[in-house]
Every structure is written in C-alpha cells, then in structure tokens.
C-alpha cells in the first residue's frame, strides 16, 4: 500500500512539474529562454516537490500503525508470560496450603501431652506402658521423629516393624494411624485409606476419630467427593464431640 501511494505521488509531481515548466515558459512569452533559466525553474520545482513529499502525512501514519501493531504483539507475548507465571504461583501456593493442613492436623493430634492422656485411657486388655521408656516406646518415638523430619518411608517401615512385634501394645493403634499419615503426606491417598481403615481393627482405639476424619480428607484429595461426603458424615454421626467436626463441616460445604 505504501508503495502504491509513493508511486502515485511521484507521477503526480512529474505531471505538476511538466505543467509548471510549460506555464513558466509561456509566461516568459515568445522571448528566448536560456538554459540557466530552465535549470533554475527545474531546481525550484524539484525543491517544492521534495518539500511537499517530506511533509506528506500518509507515510508517517502508516509507520505509526505498524509500530503500534508491533508494540501490541510484544505486549501480548508479555501478558501471556505473566499469565503462565501466575498459574504456576497458584499451583505452588495451593500445594503449600495442603502441606500446612497436613502439618496442622498432625500436630493437633499428636503432641506428647495428648498421647500421654491417650495412653492412660487404653483398655485393660492391652499392655499398659511402664513408667520407664520401653524399647517399644523408644522405637515409636524414633519413628515419630522420622515422620516429623519428612522421612516418610523410614517412618512407615519402623511403625510396621512395631506392629509385627506387638499388635497388643498400647501404642499399636497409633503406629497404624501414623502409617496412614505417612502415606497421606506422600500423597499416596489409596494406601493412606487402607492404613486408616485398619485403625478401626483395634478395640477402643483413641485414634478412631482421627482416622475417620483422614478417610474423608483422603477421598477429598482424590476427588472422590461422594466417598468423602460419606466419611465426613460418618464422623459427625459416630464422633459428634470430635474436634474435627468443624473441619468436616467446612469440607462438606465445599462438596455441596
């Protein structure tokens, strides 16, 4: 388009140039026109053409439009990059929130003071820990430290060994529960569900409500909303005084 405009302008000024020369020659009458006068007239007309061409507003406008197109393309590339960055930030922050929920639920249910109270409520049918630290209790504490240090595979192995050694120990149900928590922290929710369900095999376990909540939470993380809803409702029905009721209601609202 720019080439056509420039060509049309050149033809136009050639015509004007010829007409101007004819007019100049006719104005001088029948008198003799010298070569110097012709050159002066030609130079004057060429200068006028150059001045008008340099002041022509069409070419700069086209250049501005092209520059705007280039700027918009660059802006669009930058915008897409920012969108992708924001999406990545959302994924990272969502993962941090999930990990924080895991740590919070674990810490709330597993302080040494709470476990001390839980051990006092153990049924008589199971072995009651002695006042001194037994090898079983010591290994259990080591496994808990492994879990807190995110060494989940080592924790699962240690808790499993304790279960094989003595399933009637007062801390056996706790071992089973923390195996589930370890799988949950690894995001292996299927294995976590299997481990949490085994907690109910221990009579009068103090981890029943905890395991029931984490069953619902595991299904929720898997996207199995019907199963999650079922487990959260079971928590409200079987453990109405549990501290997890508030959190269960929150998940039920999300499920709808």
Q: Could you explain the architecture of this structure?
A:
It is a single chain. The chain has 256 residues and is mainly α. The chain has 2 domains: 1-27 and 36-51; 93-255, Alpha Horseshoe (Serine Threonine Protein Phosphatase 5, Tetratricopeptide repeat). The chain has helices at residues 2-27, 35-54, 58-109, 112-120, 135-148, 152-165, 172-185, 189-198, 208-222, 225-238, 245-255. Helix 5 packs antiparallel against helix 6 (152-165). Mean pLDDT is 75; it is low at 1-7 and 115-131.
What features would you highlight for this structure?
256 residues, mainly alpha, 11 helices, elongated
Which percent bin holds the helix content? over 70%
Order of helices and strands: HHHHHHHHHHH
CATH class of the largest domain equals: Mainly Alpha
Rg (C-alpha, Å)? 43 Å
Q: Give the amount of beta strand, in percent.
A: under 5%
The average pLDDT score comes to 75
The assigned structural class equals mainly alpha
Task: Provide a concise account of the structure shown.
The chain has helices spanning 2-27, 35-54, 58-109, 112-120, 135-148, 152-165, 172-185, 189-198, 208-222, 225-238, 245-255. It has 256 residues and is an all-alpha fold.
Please give the structural blueprint.
Elements: H1 2-27, H2 35-54, H3 58-109, H4 112-120, H5 135-148, H6 152-165, H7 172-185, H8 189-198, H9 208-222, H10 225-238, H11 245-255
Helix pairs in contact: 1-2, 5-6, 6-7, 7-8, 7-9, 8-9, 9-10, 10-11
